[in-house]
Design goal:
It is a single chain. Helices cover 60% and strands 0% of the residues. Helix 9 (168-175) crosses helix 12. It starts with 11 loop residues before the first helix and ends in a 28-residue tail after the last helix. It has 302 residues and is mainly alpha-helical. It contains 13 helices and no strands.
């Protein structure tokens, strides 16, 4: 069995197709990748492209450069990326605004569109890309968070029109208090989606609630993205507990799902202990006009 850290999630053919369809190949003919070229040589060519783009403020070319770099990261295997791969990712991200919410939305939307054209935007690819980017540099955190929300949104059929940080209330409402199906009712694809969703949710809990986000908060990201309401915490714990109870059925995937659920429940317990809860806003009933005084003298008018 192949080691997970060496697994590839994209292939060179996809990179060639992307470069042919992008404007990069017209500007930089040296990016043509012949068959048999080693990944180190490809990285060298992309580093050369980075050294040019840092002097030329062409945002469209920089976005294409990001997509190409992400494809190479998936080819390289995002779990144990080589040093030259890490250097390229950091350099390319340094050319882009990875903090401003609107800029991040544009980057993520462009990345998803281009990967979609190549049919390389599977939920597994997006998850591994999210993990790989943030493992290399925390600068990629906003992009990674938006990719995780995109994965959860696809699986939960959430309507996501803006790729941005979201409140956990939205996630809790989508999950509900009880899973829609039990494991015994799920087919293999649904169980795989459940595993991918649990991995994504666990990353969101860790990155947003348990990691240090001072830099993003200082930049202007609202505090409520890094907190949770007590009712939403209770709801997610209840939902996860139903899954935990359900994994006793004899499915091969159960050990994997059980591990994810235990991790989720453990992190939610940490959130309960370590993170201040958002206040739950109780809507006040609108105040009406004060009651009119009782007219006790009308009968004496005549």
């Amino acid at each position: 069995m192949r080691c997970e850290s060496m697994k590839k999630f994209c292939y060179f053919g996809l990179l060639r197709n992307f470069l042919k369809s992008s404007s990069l190949i017209e500007k930089y003919p040296d990016l043509v990748i012949p068959h048999g070229m080693m990944i180190d040589e490809i990285l060298t060519r992309f580093e050369y492209l980075y050294s040019i783009e840092r002097l030329v403020c062409d945002q469209q070319s920089r976005r294409y450069l990001l997509v190409g770099t992400c494809i190479i990261l998936l080819i390289n295997g995002p779990i144990l990326a080589r040093t030259s791969m890490c250097t390229l990712v950091k350099n390319v991200l340094s050319l882009l605004d990875c903090k401003n919410p609107m800029s991040v939305h544009i980057l993520v939307e462009f990345l998803l569109e281009e990967l979609g054209k190549l049919k390389a935007d599977s939920k597994l690819n997006l998850l591994n890309l999210s993990e790989g980017l943030v493992r290399i540099t925390k600068v990629a955190m906003p992009i990674s968070i938006c990719l995780l929300w995109a994965i959860v949104g696809r699986i939960m059929k959430m309507e996501i029109t803006m790729h941005r940080y979201r409140e956990f209330e939205e996630l809790a409402l989508s999950l509900g208090w009880k899973p829609e199906y039990s494991l015994c009712q799920m087919n293999a694809e649904q169980r795989e989606d459940l595993d991918l969703m649990l991995r994504s949710i666990n990353h969101l809990i860790k990155f947003l609630l348990l990691d240090n986000n001072d830099e993003l908060q200082e930049f202007g990201y609202p505090n409520h993205f890094f907190q949770m309401r007590g009712i939403d915490l209770k709801s997610m714990v209840t939902w996860a507990t139903f899954i935990k109870t359900d994994v006793s059925a004899p499915f091969k995937c159960n050990a994997k799902i059980c591990s994810r659920i235990r991790e989720m429940l453990g992190m939610l317990e940490r959130v309960k202990r370590e993170v201040s809860m958002l206040p739950e806003i109780v809507e006040e009933k609108p105040k009406g006009f004060p009651p009119l005084p009782v007219d006790t003298f009308s009968a004496l008018d005549d």
